[in-house]
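Subject: Protein entry, chain in single-letter code together with its fold tokens

Category: Structural biology, sequence-to-fold work with a learned token vocabulary.

Notation: Tokens come from a learned vocabulary of local backbone shapes, not from coordinates.

Start of record: The labelled sequence and token lines come straight after this line.
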Amino acid sequence: MTEISPGLENVYIKYTELTYIDGDNGIMRYRGYDINELAEKSSFEEVSYLMLFGELPDEKELSNFKNKINNNLKLPDYMKNILKNLPGEADSLGILQTVLSARSSIELNYKYSEKNDKELIPEILGNVLSIVSNIYRIKSGKAIIDPIPGKNYAETFLNACFDKTDDQKIDAIDAALILYMDHEIPASTTAALVTASTLSDMYSSLVSAVTALRGPLHGGAAEGAYKQFLEIKTPENVEPWFKKNIIEDKKRLIGLGHRVYKTYDPRLKSFKKYADKLSVTPEQKNILEIAKKLEELGVKTFGPKGIYTNTDFYSGIVFNAIGFPLDMFTTLFGLSRISGILAHITEYVEKQEKLIRPRAIYNGYDKREYKK
């Protein structure tokens, strides 16, 4: 009898040289490099180059890559007009989805090839930086701008959002962009691969990915975890909140558990470090203390079942401490994931893999007679 795999769990659709994950031992590597080492020692551009082209760039390669990204920070007028005319209450990730969709409409007859892909990818990275920074600006009541290149992608992005920033926040968002860059083929990357496998263009494939990211079970997890902390309000409320909501009402503790990991998410280490560094105001320290107490209680309760803290538990604290509101968390996740998704698209399509076309097992009516 043919069996299905709900959620496509443990169904393999491609070979990859990009990301290695050992969920039992909490190991994650990009092209062989430890994820936390890359987050500590490299920049977003360097790791993007590594993922896209196979090796860390030398000085000349990095400079050329940065220049190509920076040359695409200025959005065309039609994209700016879309940003201006969407409702102010529109979902941030929905705005990104809409603008990318508009860009895809003029991507006619795109042909995947190593040469074409290497030219288009820096354009996409520059465009997305500008789109996301201006989404924040619009929702904050600020005017749309053309970002001015900084020393790296992270500085350019934060300066475009806030007009000025500091090195500690630049380091934190740079690390966050690296840590969230790829995670093999979760829902968003799978959605992109399904679209790309039809030989649709890269922008359309990214629209599919961003659409999948909007769900709270995927990109929205950091937002959900942070909402828990706000609901708890004080460290003293952690235990009674946990008992009522998690034990008695059996609600899901957002930020614990993962489809892949049976121990701590390896990315958690870096996010927790930056949460400690950046939480300086009384409100930020209060949220951090709530998170730590909730983590301790959650791991004590669910750790014996192989359920541990994942990276989304602390990433929202980092994003908020940098200066971003709750409704930007998932969009920041989307910004970071673009390079990884593009790497998977090119890896899949350039190797001429098959159209992704799964089947379903019919379990409805047998033949029925039509009666009017």
